[in-house]
Amino acid sequence: MSTPKVSAVVAAAGFSKRFSTHGKKQFAALGGKPLLTYCLSTFESSELITGVVVVVPEDEILRSKELLESFGFEKITSVVAGGEKRHVSVRNGFRATPPDSDMVLIHDAARPFVDNDTIKRVIEGCTRTGACICAVPVTDTLKRTQEPGPLVSETVPREKLWRAQTPQAFRREILAEIYCSDSIADLDATDESALAEAKGIKVSVVAGTDLNMKITTAADFKIAQLIVSKGEVVNAQNRNGV
Questions:
Q1: Domains identified in the chain, total number
Q2: What is the rounded CA–CA span in Å between residue 215 and residue 233?
Q3: Taking a C-beta distance cutoff of 8 angstroms, is the pair 122, 132 a contact?
Q4: At 20, is the pLDDT very low, low, confident or very high (cuts 50, 70, 90)?
Q5: Residue 108's beta-bridge partner residues?
Q6: Beta partners for residue 34, in sequence order
Q7: Domain range for 28
Q8: Distance (Å, rounded) from C-alpha 43 to C-alpha 9?
Q9: Segment 173-207, tens digit of pLDDT
Q10: CATH code of residue 106
């Protein structure tokens, strides 16, 4: 089978409500660089990614274009405006990808430490099944609660439970089917896999990594700063041929 043409959509249109009251996290300085640039550097280095669409808040398009141009990214084909919900933002990014793309890979800019091995595994999984995500097994003990209190109502078995991550990859025709559906307007899906599942599409899972963390809160950002300061990102990249 020939190598698929893979476009990436980087979702960076969030409003960072849980991160900070000052600025948007995708532009926060992490180790002297905007957080957004970390994953873009990995996609830039990947031989499997042919082009990248970046989705940002509408009022940040000009700033984002100037920023990304200053870093010399060559694979970025366009910067487009997001929407009020995640799936609207990703749909906008998907529509900006080249129509001859065989596969579209979607990644959250809030996960700066994605590596090339994970990208490769997700693409290979998508090649086999048409839809694939990376994830890590749940290791914590899980509790379900009820009011008042809240009180613990039960302990949830963690076997076969995974923490979904990005990137998530889909054959182009699958995403086209998802985003042509009127029913997704009523969904508040937190990832593209949930949209696919709602359409009855089977999604396969490959291994993610604990380093591929999502920065949501200020505490997460402090952990990311520690990772960068200790050189863990550089070490991971070196292991993956970056």
A1: 1
A2: 15
A3: yes
A4: low
A5: 11
A6: 29
A7: 6-239
A8: 10
A9: 999 999 887 667 677 788 999 999 989 999 999 99
A10: 3.90.550.10
- Residue 130 located in a structural domain: yes
Structure tokens given for 17: 């409500």
What's phi and psi for 167, nearest 5 deg? Answer: -80, 155
Task: Tell me if 1 is assigned to some domain.
Answer: no
Comparison of pLDDT for 110 and 181, the residue scoring more: 110
Q: What Å distances lie between residue 58 and 83, 89, 110, 135, 156, CA to CA?
A: 8, 10, 18, 30, 41
Q: Of 10-24, 29-43, 201-215, which range is least confident? A: 10-24
Whether 120 maps to a domain, the answer reads yes
- pLDDT at site 21: 47
- Residue 130 in contact with residue 174, Cβ under 8 Å? yes
Hey, what amino acid is at 234? V
Closest by CA position to 40, among listed 50, 52, 57, 28:
52
How big is the CA angle at 188 (ends 211 and 93), to the nearest 5 degrees?
Answer: 65
Q: How far apart are CA 130 and CA 169, in angstroms?
A: 8
Q: Which long-range contacts (CB under 8 A, 24 or more apart) does 84-87 make?
A: 85/188, 86/11, 86/14, 86/189, 86/190, 86/191, 87/184, 87/187, 87/189, 87/192, 87/195
pTM here is: 0.91
Question: In whole numbers, what is the pLDDT of the chain averaged over residues?
Answer: 90
Q: Which amino acid is at 27?
A: F
Residues 6+ positions from 234 with CB-CB distance below 8 Å: none
Task: Check: CB of residue 39 under 8 Å from CB of residue 114.
Answer: yes
Cα 218 from chain centroid?
19
User: Do the beta carbons of residue 196 and residue 174 sit within 8 Å?
Assistant: yes
Asked whether residue 112 is assigned to any structural domain, the reply reads: yes
The 10 Å Cβ neighbour count of residue 127 is 17
